[in-house]
Write a structure and sequence with these properties.
By secondary structure, the protein is of the alpha/beta class. The chain contains eleven helices and 14 strands.
Length: 437
């Protein structure tokens, strides 16, 4: 892992070839998040839910463990759309695949993710896309690996998950990349004294630690909420008067808020204590659309980061069309949709290359199809699958812009998006920086 101020995109490659028809999938629902039945024909997409007899022995059975409930539920729609659109593209290319949906919940109730992991194992899925929360993945990763089932998270960033299991991969960069980018953004804006309002969660404290190191390496100081000070708050807390009072009393230039849904209670407290909201910074867990939550202008000028490149408009439209067709509503947030799409496509290409849809075959071929060993660059499932069928090695260049998997199954490079909130409290993409993990 690196904390360098500039780390450039590593162009890598990939290997081997063989052919496969991804077999056997039916329509019909029966799992946690499938079609709502309200089908606006925007893209004429289908739910592609698995038939009852589909298993990893006879189909590419794409399971999910993504947030439908809990404090990260706002991330569910784009992640679910990314998976659903990818499976539609696999089917449109002439292969067969299906989806089996489960809810990850979040770190405030691990019983949800534990039960969903059991469902995925019982259903004999080929791959589990998720979770969104690093703490949730840490709760289920060993259980899924023991099954074994390949887990590919589109959103986990905790450094604790790097190299956690041979069956665990992610298409989001670890916090060493996002933390470095946000720390550089803060000091680049002229801030030298930084306070943290951070929850006691592996995601929160891990990201805080990297931001803190970056700020201190640049000559800054942490005035409140730093590593080892014991000033974190528990996930799910609802009132923050004492924490905000203490943070402001430490006389910071900037306050970094690292939380999930708790942000909706932290922000009003900061406002009530007359903090200049332009000097707050947010991370991927709370750089979100608050246009219906806070008064107009509340967050105007504040900044945040979200790992991932800004997806192209045509790709965002396709994701939204899928969600409209299958779930009955258009998307308003696209966070981690591209990473979810790429996680699914990479899994399918690994199965194609290996000639089977079982988890062990997929695990053995994930690095190769990501470009880790060299190969012909390709950017769609059909294009890449056709090359594999011809016996060529490939390097899938996905919509998220991440580099090939490294030895720890992390993306070797990734983009971090920089956002600034507008007068409607919506984060607007400004630029992206690249870093290596």
């Amino acid at each position: 892992m690196v904390h360098s101020k500039k780390a450039w995109f590593a162009v890598a490659a990939l290997a081997a070839a063989t052919t496969l028809t991804l077999a056997g999938c039916g329509g019909g629902g029966g799992n946690d998040a499938g079609s709502t039945g309200s089908a606006a024909p925007a893209g004429d997409y289908k739910s592609q839910d698995c038939a009852a007899d589909a298993t990893s022995a006879n189909t590419l059975k794409v399971g999910t463990i993504l947030p439908q409930t809990g404090t990260l539920a706002f991330l569910g729609p784009p992640e679910i759309a990314g998976v659903g659109l990818a499976v539609n593209d696999i089917v449109a290319a002439g292969d067969k695949a299906c989806t089996f949906w489960t809810d990850s919940g979040d770190s405030t109730d691990m019983a949800v993710s534990s039960a969903s992991a059991d469902k995925l194992i019982d259903a004999k899925v080929s791959v589990a896309i998720g979770a969104a929360s690093s703490s949730v993945s840490l709760n289920v990763v060993d259980k899924l690996a023991a099954a074994p089932i390949v887990e590919v998270s589109p959103a986990n960033t905790s450094a604790e998950l790097s190299g956690k299991s041979p069956f665990y991969f992610r298409t989001a960069p670890p916090d060493t990349v996002q933390g470095s980018a946000l720390g550089q953004l803060i000091v680049g804006d002229g801030h030298q004294k930084v306070a943290f309002l951070v929850f006691n969660d592996s995601y929160g404290t891990g990201l805080r630690d990297v931001i803190e190191k970056t700020v201190e390496d640049a000559g800054g100081t942490v005035t409140y909420g730093g590593k080892g000070k014991g000033q974190e708050f528990p996930p799910g807390q609802t009132t923050f008067s004492s924490e905000v009072t203490a943070a402001i009393a430490s006389k910071p230039d900037a306050i970094v808020v690292i939380a999930f849904d708790e942000t909706k209670a932290i922000v009003p407290e900061l406002v009530s204590q007359s903090w200049d909201m332009k000097n707050t910074y947010y991370t991927d867990g709370n750089t979100s659309d608050y246009s219906k939550v806070f008064d107009k202008g509340t967050l105007e000028g504040a900044k945040g980061t979200i790992p991932g490149a800004n997806p192209a408009d045509d790709f965002k439209k396709r994701m939204s069309d899928w969600h409209q067709s299958v779930q009955g509503s258009a998307l308003s947030d696209y966070s981690y949709g591209a990473e979810s799409y790429d996680a699914t496509i990479l899994s399918a290409l690994a199965a194609k290359k290996g000639g089977a849809t079982d988890p062990t075959t997929i695990q053995k071929n994930m690095a190769a199809v990501s470009g880790a060993q060299g190969g012909t660059e390709c950017s769609s499932y059909k294009e890449c699958a056709d090359l594999i069928t011809k016996g060529e090695s490939i390097h899938y260049k996905g919509v998220s812009g991440v580099g090939p998997f490294n030895a720890k199954n992390d993306p070797s490079s990734a983009f971090i998006g920089i956002y600034q909130f507008d007068a409607d409290n919506k984060p607007v993409w400004q630029s992206a920086v690249e870093g290596k993990s």
